[in-house]
Amino acid sequence: MAHAAISPEQVRDALRTVNDPELHRDLITLDFVKDIKVRGADVSFTVTLTTPACPLKDQIRQESEQAVRKLVPGVGKVEIAFDARVRADKRIEEKIKLPIKSIVAVGSGKGGVGKSTVAVNLAVALAQAGASVGLLDADIYGPNIPTLMGVEDLPPPRGETLVPAEAHGVRLMSMGFLIGAEDALVWRGPMIHGALRQLLSDVAWGELDYLVVDLPPGTGDAQLSVAQLVPLTGGVVVTTPQLLSVSDARRGVGAFQKLGVPVLGIVENMSGEVFGQGGGERAASELGVPFLGRVPLDPRVSRMGDAGTPPVSSRETFPAADAFRQVAHRVAAGVSIQQYQGEGAPAGGRK
Q1: I want to staple 49 with a disulfide (CB 3.0 to 4.6 A). Which of 66, 84, 127, 329 is the partner?
Q2: Which residue ranges make up each domain of the chain?
Q3: Which of 238, 239, 232 minimizes the C-alpha distance to 275?
Q4: Does 206 score more than 80 pLDDT?
Q5: pTM value > 0.70
């Protein structure tokens, strides 16, 4: 028995039963489906993701195809394409007049937990997923980003505007480019504020989906200055598993919350036999914030950082690099949730 001709509206109705796994609203209501085409029994359409780093693309593909096959009689081939559009945090452009869609700050309650390494690999992993990414080294006193990214100098400025360096697909700016390697900065709060304002506003960042900001350790002037200068879409706190470090991480979470910055979650870095494991996850559970992942202690991470080669940029696959990529996917998902909450999306999405 021949089936009636398939219509695009039938496909749309079927996709109303498919929810975005992070936003918990259906793809049609979210306006994520476009270019529905029907050729005989074959159907094709495009799903627009909230981030190129979406960790749940395969789940969305599977559930979308299943819904169309189940609810549209006579369907033959189902072809699903994907693109991505990171939603803009409108507060950012209103305040600093730069086309940056979201700003993610990476902080820690203390030094020595690998915060800069996490920030670098987060930025590079997002860029590898297809996003346009900038990385701002806001650690005025200990700028490590140039070393970790393997860059020594900035390009020539454009008049009064600084041009960011670029490495591993990421645009980057650091005070380390502007001072000598042996110079020690002894600055008070107003000088820090002025330097950070210049690094944010006087730089030709261009259009960015994400600007990752590597904060200095602790909860001092620099953290306050960044929060005052720009609206932060979310904050990530890095800790190692030991009790003392986790206690400091709790203070880092508290600092973001006092500044009105949504906490995207906690990363447990250097996990394994030497420092133990599980402390970061327990802290996240106790504080009611997402746990973004556990990065195992691996000497390759340190060696590659010294060489200016972030582990996620390597062709070599090993657990620490894979863990950094998972952290990046979860951060991107958390940013998407923050951007859509103003339109009724629930604050779920913890994976």
Answers
A1: 84
A2: 8-84, 90-341
A3: 239
A4: yes
A5: yes
